[in-house]
């Protein structure tokens, strides 16, 4: 069994922590704004998680789109040993791609948080809002991902 090198694990963990912190800050900011605007509402649309997930889809597709359109590849085999055997530039590029896509964007967007929000809305009686949130989230993620992947082809 192969494992990522210590360098790759540390970089991946740091990028993941940054993405998770950004998701939290986005969610808290949107929720606080909603509560200030309508403090007595019983249900709030989870705009924070929706925004974080949509942003992550756009960024992930954009990062991978740039990589694909420039011929850069995420080469996991370069990250599987401590020395990054072979070309150091290839190791570095793969490490950056891994950190930005899987680490940062992966933790910025979470399916589990999406589902927790859907279930919380449904259990609190806002079933229509829960279904709308799920549908709009999936559509926005697909649209943002498509746009993020397409934009690099314009340049």
Structure description:
With 155 residues, the chain is mainly α. It has one domain (6-154). It has 6 helices and no strands. It has helices at 6-37, 47-70, 76-79, 88-108, 111-123, 127-150. Helix 2 runs antiparallel to helix 4 (88-108) and helix 5 (111-123) packs antiparallel against helix 6. The model has no long low-confidence stretch (mean pLDDT 88).
The main β sheet shows up as: none
Strand content bin: under 5%
Mean pLDDT: 88
Number of strands: 0
The class by helix and strand makeup works out as mainly alpha
The protein's oligomeric status is: single chain
Tell me the Rg in angstroms.
18 Å
Number of domains: 1
pLDDT < 50 runs, ≥5 residues? none
Question: Keywords, please?
Answer:
155 residues; mainly alpha; elongated
Summarize the structure.
The protein contains 6 helices and no strands. By secondary structure, the chain is an all-alpha fold.
Note the topology.
Elements (H helix, E strand, L loop, with lengths): L5 H32 L9 H24 L5 H4 L8 H21 L2 H13 L3 H24 L5
Helix pairs in contact: 1-2, 1-4, 2-4, 2-6, 5-6
């Amino acid at each position: 069994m192969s494992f990522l090198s210590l360098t790759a694990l540390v970089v991946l963990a740091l990028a993941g922590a940054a993405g998770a912190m950004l998701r939290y800050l986005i969610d808290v900011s949107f929720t606080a704004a909603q509560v200030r605007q309508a403090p007595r509402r019983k249900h709030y649309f989870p705009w924070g998680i929706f925004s974080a997930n949509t942003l992550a889809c756009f960024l992930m597709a954009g990062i991978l789109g740039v990589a694909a359109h420039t011929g850069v590849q995420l080469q996991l085999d370069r990250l599987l040993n401590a020395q990054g055997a072979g070309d150091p530039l290839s190791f570095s590029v793969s490490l950056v791609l891994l950190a930005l896509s899987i680490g940062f964007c992966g933790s910025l967007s979470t399916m589990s948080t999406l589902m927790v929000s859907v279930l919380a809305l449904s259990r609190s009686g806002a079933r229509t809002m829960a279904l709308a949130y799920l549908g709009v989230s999936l559509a926005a993620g697909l649209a943002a991902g498509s746009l993020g992947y397409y934009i690099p082809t314009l340049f």
